[in-house]
Amino acid sequence: MLSLVKISVFLAGVAAAQEATYAHRIFHDFRSLDGSLYTCEPANITNDEQSSAAPVQSGYLTSDAFVNDFGIQTWGAPVSETSPVRKQNSNQNVYIERDEDGSSTHLVLRAYRNEDFISSAEVESKVSNIFHASIRVRARVRGDAGACAGIFTYYDDDNESDIEILTRDPTNHIRYTNQPGLDEDGNEIPGASTDAVMGGGAVWTDWNDYRLDWTADLSVWYLNGKLAHIKTYGIPSNPSTFILNMWGNGGVWTGDMDIGSAAYLDIEWIEILYNTA
Ligand SMILES: *[C@@H]1O[C@H](CO)[C@@H](O)[C@H](O)[C@H]1NC(C)=O
Ligand SMILES: *[C@@H]1O[C@H](CO)[C@@H](O)[C@H](O)[C@H]1NC(C)=O
């Protein structure tokens, strides 16, 4: 009986999450951008000089529409006990690319493993006081093992709600996590991170609609319009930034990338319905 009560409370909560109203909307559609541009993938970053010298790709990513809403990151993270490989974000790993068949365009975030570090990609929202939101992203992930594609909200390491695709995972697995995922002794906290099988025969190498609804009491994840996962653990309690990234650090979570390998997070559109604190 207890479990029935719990389920009905959950469903009431999900209904509430679906009914939440939002005052603000960010929407970017990368599918039909200027035909003459974006004909090829930028060169992979093989050293620090290339990394820091790289400009933002001109076109949509330097337009006011994009720049007003998002910042492409260039910070790095050094080697540490849990990150055996250095990570360095570069402008050159964020670009618009045309589909192979030439029909449409999409945003790409790339991670490339060179001899010295993982050259990674991160895009952060300019608004950093998102307080409850419905985040919807149509995306695809491809490439080599050892990288993590992230779509998430972030305030700090203890206030973070994640959709993550690990390229070492089978192509029908996805990770839904509310941080903190580890306790003070470094052990996994039960219920913080869920390794879920994607429903409806979906695989992350195809385009899918990912959605995270963050309300006061619940985190609810959807995949292709269907309820996928619910958490009451670790609901972020602080105003947050929205982040997309493609990264690796050779650690336990991502695994390591082979030198010379790459992985890609492709995005057709992003919609963020949100309120502010
Ligand atoms: C970047 O590296 C990947 C993996 O080796 C490769 O498939 C891709 O073609 C490279 N990109 C360019 C522009 O050379
Ligand atoms: C969020 O941050 C606050 C401190 O501002 C902390 O007390 C709390 O444990 C963090 N995590 C969650 C899930 O609220």
TrEMBL record:
Domain GH16 as annotated: residue spans: 49-277
Protein's UniProt keywords contain Signal: yes
CDD domains from the UniProt entry: Glyco_hydrolase_16
Domain of life assignment: Eukaryota
Presence of the UniProt keyword Signal in the record: yes
Principal place of residence: membrane
Signal peptide: 1-16
Membrane topology: Lipid-anchor; GPI-anchor
Alphabetically ordered keywords of this record: Cell membrane, Membrane, Signal
Localization annotation: Cell membrane
Xref: SUPFAM superfamilies: Concanavalin A-like lectins/glucanases
Protein name stated in the entry: Concanavalin A-like lectin/glucanase domain-containing protein
Source organism of the structure: Aspergillus cavernicola
